[in-house]
């Protein structure tokens, strides 16, 4: 069996901690068994590793999330979507990857699941049963549904055919998307299960569908033509059109931590970051990513979230409304990268120039490529730690208090000896993130370039 984890999200439902670059699955607000803070994706990857499925798993994600995935999980197998186009294109790309690059057998079972379910370890043990039920029934798709604990209107329901199946599985009659609570009671009485977004199929089944639709099945070709695929979910494009589907039940703990209300129910601490809660602030949680202290007095049933992107103060039951109030396409003010992180401190714009100020952390042993910027000048002030700067083939040792001006067009690279933090002021006609021309991608390449000219490295 091959597992494909889908990692996406626009970062609206848990604003201001989540944004386009840091969706909910990357927020380090859960407590592990060692009382350390971890993200949803770190928790899930640990569970997959615990049941021995990590070597069979690949993550499909957009290029916006590549750095933060590698930062939190290390060098795990990742399929990078050229752009966001919903779950059908993402799963088609994953199938092409398995088929044409990894030479996976067409009879191999492929299981698709979200990257962020909050579940027990046995959830992943149950996933392995999907392969058996596909082989046993010859169904085209096998789903896993969660046994409902209450008639909720938040989830979709998988409705089984009456008497079609046995204790291990059921044939699927239809799907009902987010019914009223009264309708949900009726569905549960019919044996309906919550749709948790987990399903499996034989690789040959999906490759056949792609061929029927004229979709390329060679990975590189599909990447080049990715923008031609319709933006549509796999549910709408495939599952709801397929009549031969079975479902197996999972009766353990499962929760979608997609809102502040549900997330705080599973947080190990009521205060994360710099802040104080008064004793009468019952069922209130504070998450503060800034150095400024936050004090909450006498406020019940609330979430207070503070980050470089903004501040949210909300009654918990009202917090899902945040997705309709977030300013669209707002620039992320905090990003986690493979080399460290940065936080935007200030931004200003005049008719002829932009100025962006960041605090940047470069982790010990990490480096930034040898590169230049065409449209901006950078001024960096080291505030913490030590490292090296190569600027136009000259080497400088960095220590706290050092200030360097890097003019537009000047090639430079940084390497941290210890965790190093510096303030960087970017100034020019444009301060776009993509204004970067790389000359050497690794520190070793850059050193060889310098040494070949007799310059000390």
Automatic annotation (TrEMBL):
Residue ranges annotated for the Mannose-6-phosphate isomerase type II C-terminal domain, each copy included: 337-437
Coiled-coil zones: none
GO biological process: GDP-mannose biosynthetic process; polysaccharide metabolic process
Molecular function in Gene Ontology: mannose-1-phosphate guanylyltransferase (GTP) activity
Superkingdom classification of source: Bacteria
Residues of the Nucleotidyl transferase domain: 4-265
Pfam families (alphabetical): MannoseP_isomer, NTP_transferase
SUPFAM superfamilies on file: Nucleotide-diphospho-sugar transferases, RmlC-like cupins
PANTHER family according to UniProt: MANNOSE-1-PHOSPHATE GUANYLYLTRANSFERASE
Descriptive protein name: Sugar phosphate nucleotidyltransferase
Organism whose genome encodes this protein: Cohnella rhizosphaerae
């Amino acid at each position: 069996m091959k597992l494909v984890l889908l990692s996406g999200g626009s970062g609206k439902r848990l604003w201001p901690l989540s944004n386009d670059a840091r969706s909910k699955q990357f927020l380090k607000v859960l407590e592990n068994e060692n009382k350390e803070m971890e993200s949803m994706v770190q928790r899930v990857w640990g569970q997959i590793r615990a049941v021995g499925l990590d070597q069979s798993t690949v993550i499909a994600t957009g290029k916006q999330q590549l750095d933060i995935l590698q930062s939190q999980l290390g060098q795990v197998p990742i399929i990078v979507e050229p752009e966001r186009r919903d779950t059908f294109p993402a799963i088609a790309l994953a199938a092409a990857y398995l088929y044409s690059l990894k030479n996976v057998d067409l009879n191999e079972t492929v299981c698709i699941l979200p990257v962020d379910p909050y579940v027990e370890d046995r959830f992943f043990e149950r996933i392995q049963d999907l392969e058996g039920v596909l082989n046993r029934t010859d169904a085209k798709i096998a789903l896993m549904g969660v046994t409902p604990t209450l008639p909720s209107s938040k989830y979709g329901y998988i409705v089984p055919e009456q008497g079609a199946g046995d204790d291990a599985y059921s044939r699927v009659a239809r799907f009902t998307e987010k019914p009223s609570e009264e309708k949900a009671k009726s569905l549960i009485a019919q044996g309906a299960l919550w749709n948790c977004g987990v399903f499996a199929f034989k690789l040959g089944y999906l490759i056949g569908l792609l061929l029927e639709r004229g979709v390329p099945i060679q990975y590189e070709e599909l990447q080049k033509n990715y923008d031609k695929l319709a933006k549509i979910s796999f549910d709408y494009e495939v599952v709801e059109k397929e009549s031969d589907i079975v479902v197996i039940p999972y009766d353990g703990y499962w929760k979608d931590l997609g809102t502040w209300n549900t997330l705080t129910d599973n947080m190990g601490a009521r205060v994360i970051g710099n802040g104080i809660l008064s004793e009468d602030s019952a069922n209130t949680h504070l998450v503060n990513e800034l150095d400024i202290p936050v004090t909450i007095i006498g406020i019940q049933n609330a979430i207070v979230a503070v980050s470089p992107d903004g501040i949210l103060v909300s009654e918990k039951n009202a917090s899902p409304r945040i997705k309709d109030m977030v300013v669209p396409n707002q620039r992320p003010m905090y990003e986690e990268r493979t080399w460290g992180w940065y936080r935007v401190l200030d931004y200003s714009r005049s008719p002829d120039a932009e100025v962006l100020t960041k605090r940047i952390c470069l982790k010990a042993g990490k480096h930034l490529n040898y590169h230049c910027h065409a449209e901006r000048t950078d001024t960096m002030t080291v505030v913490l730690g030590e490292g090296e700067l190569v600027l136009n083939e000259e080497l400088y040792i960095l220590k706290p208090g050092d200030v360097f001006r890097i003019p537009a067009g000047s090639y430079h690279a940084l390497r941290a000896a210890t965790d190093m933090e510096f303030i960087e002021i970017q100034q020019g006609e444009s301060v776009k993130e993509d204004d970067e021309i790389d000359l050497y991608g690794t520190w070793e390449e850059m050193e060889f370039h310098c040494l070949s000219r007799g310059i000390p490295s």
